[in-house]
Amino acid sequence: MKKSLCITTSVVAFLAFQNLPARADSALETLAKDSKQWVMQAGDDANTRYSKLNQINANNVNKLQVSWTFSTGVLRGHEGAPLVIGDVMYVHTPFPNTVYALDLNNEGKILWKYEPRQDPNVIPIMCCDTVNRGVAYADGKVFLHQADTTLVALDAKTGKVVWSKMDGEAGKGQSGTDAPFVFGDKVLVGVSGGEFGVRGWVSAYNIKDGSLAWHGYSEGPDSDTLIDPQKTTSLGKPVGENSSTSTWEGDQWKIGGGATWGWYSYDPELNLVYYGSGNPSTWNPVQRPGDNRWSMSIWARDLDTGKVKWIYQMTPHDEWDYDGVNEMILTDQTIEGKPRKLLTHFDRNGFGYTLDRASGELLVAEKYDPVVNWATKVDMDKSSKTYGRPLVVDQYSTQHNGEDSNSKGICPAALGTKDEQPAAYSPETQLFYVPTNHVCMDYEPYKVAYTAGQAYVGAAVAMYPPKGDSNMGNFIAWDNKAGKIVWSNKEQFSAWGGALATAGGVVFYGTLEGYLKAIDAKTGKELYKFKTPSGIIGNVMTYEHGGKQYIAVLSGVGGWAGIGLAAGLLQPENAAAWHGAVDQGKLPTADKTVDTAGLGAVGGYAGLADYTSLGGTLTVFALPSQ
Amino acid sequence: MNLKYWKIALIIAACAFVNSAAQADGSGDPAVASSDNGKYVDKNGNPTYNIHPDGTVDWYTFSGFRRYHSDCHVCHGPNGEGSSYAPALAQSLKTLSYADFVDVVTNGRKHVDSANDKVMPSFATNVNVMCYVDDIYVYLRARANNAIPGGRPPSHEDKSEAAKTAETSCTGVK
């Protein structure tokens, strides 16, 4: 064959190949396109939590009614959501992590129930309640990630165990709270334990038989993190040798944190899995000098090999516990006239990031709550030495102020402007619907010693609403191209339930008092609300059965919100008032009064305990029958 | 006639009981009986708090506030006020003695049955807690007796050399 023809043929073949998707749709991806079902926790691989169902719309949602309910039999924080595959609904619970299969053709009759036997000693190493973020489904199997780190595959028809793998060790402070994620032929799980010195990782197992495909750590040598010094890039540049270990002192990376308990998304064309890593261990930044990579980072890993394509650290040398684990929402939108493959992420640190998900280029980083104050901005100047880094404000830097020094008035508090409660995206409005926290904190680090399996925290934290505000949450609509809040609805408590957007032009979310709320996707106007039996920290989902659209959400207050807000947060108190509470009104002596001018009014703050109590219920809503 | 006297006697007895109960928590009367290097104890030798009329707290109460809000508040809530899954220690210490408090922190506690899955870990091997168990007790005792409100105490007595030495030798952290 003539050389030129050979070259031409191969060039043509190469070009044609570039336009083909990396693989045909998996069976699960095909199922996910049927809006009658809800086959994965986030609705789809891209984590949009958007449904094409529109029987319920902005005009009729005010007529929504409770259609049926189901008690889970467990009283702890209920995160995550049920799945609907065909005519069966799969409901999960917090510890002991029971899974129910309910027959939607037969009034929710329990087809089977899986109740794992777990050592209750895993309970106390779960820092933030014994939550579980839900099951996954693929290939006739339901996947459950148990608190004791077991990943189990159950036969979807019978509930019998098909295979079971213990992914970690509870004795070392490791636990399981994140949902499993099925992409392609793999099921992925992360690990919890950033407050126990656990070095985080992601494991990928083959769904057929549970054999381990790869295991990628958040810190350590490249062989552990699966980073290539030349091929893995950060903000467009190769990360170089020892990109993780060179940012830790000695062996500290071995107890480095970087837990991986959030939400993962996947682009089948690029074959990349996207997720975030959590806080470095300890909470005392002085004890771990260096940028502490790759904690607090957005990761893009190849699904088949786990190799890292690109990575971006949002909060280098964290000083506030702003875990980077929140969801990575994938959208295809036009920016400045060009279609881009985007990734949008609402971080705990208060910045809403928009990146190019193919290259990892940083496009937008703006505050999604105006009170965020620990950094002025993220440096967007590509020629700057601090490009891509947040510009930290000394006053709110716990590192700068030092150990045994109380850094005051830092916003957001450690629980972040948003925690794991996931946002939703509507392709019709091109808006993101984000449940947020509006809380600030004092943070005082001090030295701690590490013992395996024991808490390794090292900071005293006090949380309160921002000065002058009484609301501790907002539900906002966000423009990820401009980096702007479009509208914002106040919520008395942190908006801790996950959002759902629908083609009916309605957005749903749950509140900590227990309200299921429906709002107009364009304006944010509240259209419907109903108080469910307990506070909502679960995610709203929707499905269709027998020609009728249903909205479902788990109630059961708990999670970190159940700790910080149960009894009420105090407004920051001024010294005179504190003294007054102690000495029954006698004035403090002048030389002992601490100057606390500007801290705001005294007073207890309405506790969540005034509005709700423990529960464990699934409530399913629908329009009244004609 | 007899019945009336009985009633009066009962009322007097009840009043006496109420009055004595109001002065005591799970360890008895929290009033300071003696002190040594800024550490205060009650008449039974249990650690206790010392609050000055202007609101200045002793070092251990202040230290206990910090240690509590690092290692305990994640389950037990801010200011000892409880969470959706762990009791309000500001209430518990009204009836829980010092000895029992130390026992639970050291050994943990399990309450697992069909209606409960409450498990508190053992902190015995955690120097960040055990070396400050008296501090945490004193802070919570003050909260239980309503001697201090919630929130960070704005001023405190100085940390004594004895406290510094004990801390270093116990935790091994310099």
Largest sheet of chain B: 3 strands, antiparallel
Strand order of the largest sheet of chain A: 1-34-35-36-37
Oligomer: heterodimer
Q: Structural class given helices, strands, pairing of chain A?
A: mainly beta
- Radius of gyration of chain B equals 19 Å
- The counted number of beta strands of chain A is 40
CATH topology of chain B: Cytochrome Bc1 Complex, Chain D, domain 2
Helix/strand class of chain B: mainly alpha
CATH first level of chain A: Mainly Beta
Q: Which superfamily, in CATH terms, is the homologous superfamily of chain A?
A: Quinoprotein alcohol dehydrogenase-like superfamily
Describe this structure in words.
- The complex is a heterodimer of chains A (626) and B (174).
- Chain A contains 6 helices and 40 strands.
- Chain A has 626 residues and is mainly beta.
- Chain A has a single domain (46-569, 605-622), classed as Methanol Dehydrogenase, Chain A (8 Propeller), CATH 2.140.10.10.
- In chain A, strands 1-34-35-36-37 form a 5-stranded mixed β-sheet, with no helix packed on it.
- Chain A is globular, with a radius of gyration of 24 Å.
- In chain A, 58% of the residues are buried.
- Chain B has 7 helices and 5 strands; from the N terminus they run αβββαααββααα.
- Chain B is 46% helix and 9% strand.
- Chain B has one domain: Cytochrome Bc1 Complex, Chain D, domain 2 (Orthogonal Bundle), CATH 1.10.760.
- In chain B, α2 packs across α6 (133-144).
- Chains A and B meet through β31, α5 and α6 of A and α2, β5 and α5 of B.
Please write out the topology:
The complex is a heterodimer of chains A (626) and B (174).
Chain A: H1 3-19, H2 27-32, E1 50-51, E2 65-71, E3 83-85, E4 88-92, E5 99-103, E6 109-114, E7 136-138, E8 141-145, E9 150-155, E10 161-166, E11 181-183, E12 186-189, E13 201-206, E14 212-217, H3 222-225, E15 233-234, E16 237-238, E17 265-267, E18 272-276, E19 297-302, E20 308-313, E21 329-335, E22 338-346, E23 351-356, E24 362-367, E25 375-378, E26 390-392, H4 398-401, E27 407-410, E28 424-426, E29 431-437, E30 440-445, E31 459-464, E32 473-479, E33 484-491, E34 500-502, E35 506-510, E36 515-520, E37 526-531, E38 541-545, E39 548-555, H5 559-564, H6 575-583, E40 617-622
Parallel strand pairs in A: 1-34
Antiparallel strand pairs in A: 2-40, 3-4, 4-5, 5-6, 7-8, 8-9, 9-10, 11-12, 12-13, 13-14, 15-16, 17-18, 18-19, 19-20, 21-22, 22-23, 23-24, 25-26, 27-30, 28-29, 29-32, 30-31, 32-33, 34-35, 35-36, 36-37, 38-39, 39-40
Chain B: H1 2-22, E1 34-36, E2 39-41, E3 47-48, H2 59-76, H3 89-92, H4 98-107, E4 109-112, E5 117-120, H5 127-130, H6 133-144, H7 161-171
Antiparallel strand pairs in B: 1-2, 2-3, 4-5
